[in-house]
Amino acid sequence: MLVDLDKDPHYQAWKDKDDGTAVIAGDKSLEPYADGLRYRYGRYKEMKAAIEKAEGGLNKFSQGYKLMGFNKTPDGILYQEWAPGAKEVFVFGDFNHWNRSSHKLSRDDFGRWSITIPNNPDGSSPIAHRTKVKVCVITHGGMSLDRNPAWGSYFVQNPESFLYDMMYWDPDQSEKYEWKNIEHVKRPDACRIYEVHIGMGTADPKIGTFREFAENVLPRVKKMGYTTIQIMAIMEHSYYASFGYHVTNFFGASSRFGTPEDLKYMVDTAHGLGIHVLLDIVHSHSSSNSMDGLNEFDGTDHCYFHEGAAGRHSLWDSRLFNYGQWEVLRFLLSNLRWWIDEYHFDGFRFDGVTSMLYKHHGIATAFSGGLSEYFGYHVDIEACVYLMLANEMLHTLYPDVMLTIGEDVSGMPTLCRPVPEGGLGFDYRLAMSIPDKFIELLEKYKDENWDMGNITFTLTNRRWNESTISYAESHDQAMVGDKTIAFWLMDAEMYTNMSTHQFPSPVIERGIALHKMLRLLAFGLGGEGYLTFFGNEFGHPEWIDFPREGNGWSYHHARRRWDLAYNEELRYKFLDKWENMCHTLEELYPFCRKASHQWVVLSDNADKIIAFERGDRLLFVFNLHPTQSYSDYRIGTFWPGKYKLVLDSDGGNVDGQGRVHWDIVHHSTPQPWNNRPNYLQLYIPARTCQVYRCFQLDSEPETEPPRNIADEPSPFTS
């Protein structure tokens, strides 16, 4: 039942609050936690006010890269570093013939060290482009520690030590990249995300490059219909198999894939195609490496991180930031600005947000949804304040561009409400329970035992006023020890029975049918945006496994088999086609967007039918029964009028049996059914899904019926 908010006393009582409790206007259940919301918002306001007073505001404060690290001046290069626990600090490298004592830094009252390295007598830069630079920290105990500059922007692995060393990056005009697309791509209304990894982006058993990705993968992204790419593992990480989540150098673009200029070329190419570009940002933890990472940077346990056990993640073997430290806030907020200002990224997917939000980091915690789990002393308020500052800064400075996604498994309420209301400010959260549910079904239950009510509940179990990115599988589900949905469904038969020159075996027929259905279920009902890990859309086989000692340092499972999707003699092409058709449907008749209409019409466990209304007069119908087809099956619907089939998983063009006629115009009957005012009678084959569109209401003039998506010209051009 719809509520008139203008007449709702609860909404009116809370909507204009300016103390962090305005979020209660949209959720009455939060009212008992008003004090917690006020406290959190108060701490945010205090920190923001302090930054404005001491630093001139978030805009200036978040441009710390212009203050810290290496910055050119008329007199030379100013180098500044924060190392409050150090006794002495020196900078050395190729520029001074590796003399560890000739260039000593001076300390200020805040633990910041600085030195101006004068220009050469001929006026040239004292540090040459692509030369190594290190910092030597002398501890109060007399130890001499070699470290990488924390704000360095380019790091290359030393073939002798296997550690990563900073290379000073200052290309001349002949090497410096010139942007062709100066403006960012505006935040898309339809958030259809392609999650990618640059190194895996090639079919060859090697590490792919930024330029190869730009030339070979980005045109495919555009052609398939994705609006956004989310790029993993950009921030420098010494261990390739960490998937980029054990970051060693936060301002460095990973040199495995090319130079900083190559990354700019790739982002620029994406923008030229109209693709919105997100960076998978890791601010939840840091690699525990000391010699080429941030750990024990100044010789103490607590420079950038909490001291002792509070500063260590027991499951990830990594360090945890102290978000209450002034210079840590400068470092992290400036890191966000760096990736936007230097590389033109359009937004961020924040990794590991659950670990940030709670002092227990989500370890051994089963979140049941009780609101007491989200408020109290176990919540890390300093981390919450950092996220509020970050989101408010990003959305204020880049209002038409910025998009932020929080990876939170806990279900923290207000995560995706605006900061002025008292929320944490994200645009979307990830629907992390959906892929887990699909894997559970495939691993533990026979098809006939799938519970339609449980599936529907999982797909719709989200906060009504907080937007969600849905997905059937991401990189997480395909990591070694698990496998892709396609491999769960078809396993070893994918090696022998995917040829189009033979009839599909029962395993392949079932696998292709369910692969199409599960993906559209997540796309259609699971959220206000959609994501897939690249390659999985065409049923990528097997799993992901990066080169390591245990697999003989093989790249066999750390690549994408694009050849499978493009091979006309293999059935992967049908799954690839289906994915493109789903995106075409969403583009022509929007359904997976914010404020999109959604109503579950039917979830019948006996018949294995799920039906729901979504978006622009679309009726989705799924028959998950393994053997039973239905004739003249009644499905309730809201819209009275004429309907036409626009998407069919049983079409011959996507390896179906072609049992549903595409040209029939269906007329609704004005009689209540399934708690809807009208109904249709449809033929629904077993293990198929169809989408019908009400193209003409009874009250509207005669309208030409739409074509099936298979017959529509693609709205996406490469």
Concise overview:
It contains 15 helices and 30 strands. It is α/β, with parallel strands linked by helices and 718 residues long.
Q: What features would you describe in this structure?
A:
With 718 residues, the chain is of the alpha/beta class. The protein has four domains: 5-62, no CATH class; 65-168, Immunoglobulins (Immunoglobulin-like), CATH 2.60.40.10; 191-588, Glycosidases (TIM Barrel), CATH 3.20.20.80; 598-711, Immunoglobulin-like, CATH 2.60.40. Helix content is 23%, strand content 21%. The chain is built from 15 helices and 30 strands. The strands form seven sheets. An eight-stranded parallel barrel has the order 10-11-14-18-19-20-21-22, surrounded by four helices. Strand 16 (312-313) and strand 17 form a beta hairpin. Helix 4 (210-216) packs parallel to helix 6 and helix 13 (506-525) packs parallel to helix 15. It is globular. The mean pLDDT is 96. Belongs to the glycosyl hydrolase 13 family. GlgB subfamily. Its EC number is 2.4.1.18. One of its GO terms (cellular component) is cytoplasm.
> How would you sum up the major sheet?
8 strands, parallel, barrel
Classification by helices and strands: alpha/beta
Q: Please give the number of β-strands.
A: 30
Helical proportion?
A: 10-25%
Q: What is the CATH superfamily label of the largest domain? A: Glycosidases
Strand order of the largest sheet: 10-11-14-18-19-20-21-22
The overall average pLDDT, rounded, is 96
Distance between the termini: 44 Å
Shape: globular
Under the CATH scheme, which class of the largest domain?
Alpha Beta
Q: What is the radius of gyration?
A: 27 Å
- Do you know the CATH architecture of the largest domain? Alpha-Beta Barrel
The parts where pLDDT drops under 50 for at least 5 residues are none
Number of helices: 15
Beta strand % = 15-25%
